[in-house]
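Suppose you are handed a protein chain with no further information: no name, no annotation, nothing but its sequence. What can you learn? This example shows the usual starting point.
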Amino acid sequence: MSTQNPIFIPGPTNIPEVLRKAVDMPTIDHRSPLFGKILRPVLENVKKVLKTAHAHVFVFPSTGTGGWEVAITNTLSPGDKVLATCNGMFSYRWIDMCRRHQLDVTVVPQSWGDGIPADQFAEILTADKEHQIKVVLATHNETATGVKSDIAAVRRALDVAKHPALLFVDGVSSIGSMDFRMDEWGVDVTVCGSQKGFMLPPGLAIVGFSPRALAAVETAKLSRTFFDVRDMAKAYDNSGFPYTPPVGLLNGLKLATEMLLEEGLENVFSRHHRIAEGVRQAVGAWGLQLCAVRPELYSDSVSAIRVPQGFDANRVVAHALNTYGVAFGTGLGEVAGKVFRIGHLGSLTDVMALSGIATAEMVMVDLGFPVKLGSGTAAAQEYYRLSVGSPQKKAA
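A reasonable first move is to predict its three-dimensional structure. Written in structure tokens, the prediction is:
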């Protein structure tokens, strides 16, 4: 695989050179005031990206999976009831983690390609008169299927039922790429990582806790040591960490958040939508379909593309890598072999996206797919040309 080509997996994403250099820094004394000059802006900037004025942000040396564990171990006790849906590999993995921590999980089954059934959540929460359900889990963007769920609708389900359960949201493949409103949506714990919308290497679990979630920490009985937010909060009071921090990654996160805020979050979201829509135009021109079953579910960070009957999506990914040096995402779990994924999040432009679309097209033609060479590329070009400021558009 050529490292000169951009990657089109849904994370880790392409790393801008300025961020790579920010991570690659000399060793500093992390107990000196110099570290605080990195940490403090990180915590404040992440709050702005999450669109929260009230949450406390914690950054652990880990990944999104570690962030899930931060959320549940700091707020829950063995035997606590959790409500979730399984509509993809990553929602499944969070459910599996809960069960391994001896939590009682009610799972609302959902087809892979559909979103969170907020109406069914509302029925279950309304029927829970004794308020035994302590937490509702929601995956904002299911990376395996390219499905975006309506978190505001999940919050409405809780509110309509007048239920006090906490709302935990996995925003790993949405935050920093798609609109996320922690305060407005009443999210109690938000989980994300460094390697997707923040355009950094893997290595940071970034978690936001609402005041209600912080209150739950004091009565939670699940074991935690490395991931104890109380230890982290105490260390933050002195601009430090309870253990050796990943200084380089935090320095990269400082610059990454500055870049996102300088571009403007709404501009970031608009850019991702535009790039994603170009990919979707190409998929339609190929005569193929997305795994996401309705347009309102379409993700702006990853598209999972169904291959025609009788074709193996894994061959698309392997051929792209071995022949053209370009990485696409494989299908996972129930959609393994049925879809290949084009990640279009993080550090990406229309021009970069076109290279991925053209490569996918060449691969499918090579493998005998009923796809016309140039069809998807032309459709994406036309969309990008008219949506970014062509002379014709400006004249209109």
